[in-house]
């Protein structure tokens, strides 16, 4: 019994000693690929025999609590694959025939983020904490991955977004015809082939959030608004709008075409309309329309 107690003390001390190392690993890491930052859907896989099996449940719980990704079960619908295993990933996601046939010793808990279109490894780390601490190792790996994503996610403020509505350059297109707008060759304006009522606009002279905008052409062939689609992998907190609820009217429902639940906020003057969509259990900014 004394020998078992001594072993437990050693293991617990080793576990505690790993925590500072985990925190230190956050610094000096290479930036995440855009594929990771822009991903919206995730497929969770676990090559998890014996004691490693707890990794799947813990990873699933962490993903649900995080709420950033929509969990999917069809590989074709996944932007990313998160794989838990005891053996290092060999880059063979697209070519492997069945489960990993290598001998497995549950010493490492390895988390690998894979591009399902190419099989490329996009992110990976491991914890050599043995079979007793698979649950904690999984949680730590998920927290590390989440921490790096959140550290590299650009965050917009309500002021960033509302500044676009008073941009002189964008305001100068109000009620011009499509042809008049296209004649401004220096403004980087082009037609959208699949949407004749839209013109793309790109200019370094406007606020950063709306550098890439689309001019909306109304039924009378004049420009009535411009629209900005929220860049993937960037963030805007709905709470900022709710904190200034006296400036907005709110609507919500389900899109009849996509069946996607949405939430809208329109400024009291009707000039700015924001649309949010549900991603996991979070409301994510989809697009903003600025009417003239």
Mind explaining what this structure looks like?
The chain has 292 residues and is of the alpha+beta class. The protein has 2 domains: 30-152, 3-Layer(aba) Sandwich (Rossmann fold), CATH 3.40.50; 155-291, no CATH class. The chain is built from 8 helices and 15 strands. The protein is elongated and about 70 Å long. Mean pLDDT is 85; it is low at 1-25.
Give the tags:
292 residues; alpha+beta; Rossmann fold; 8-stranded antiparallel beta sheet; 5-stranded mixed beta sheet
Topology:
Layout: H1 2-24, H2 34-37, E1 41-46, H3 54-66, E2 70-71, E3 80-85, E4 109-114, E5 121-127, H4 134-152, E6 154-156, H5 158-163, H6 168-171, H7 178-182, E7 189-192, E8 195-202, E9 212-217, E10 223-229, E11 234-236, H8 238-242, E12 248-254, E13 261-267, E14 272-279, E15 282-291
Parallel strand pairs: 1-2, 1-3, 6-11
Antiparallel strand pairs: 3-4, 4-5, 7-8, 8-9, 9-10, 10-15, 12-13, 13-14, 14-15
Helix pairs in contact: 3-4
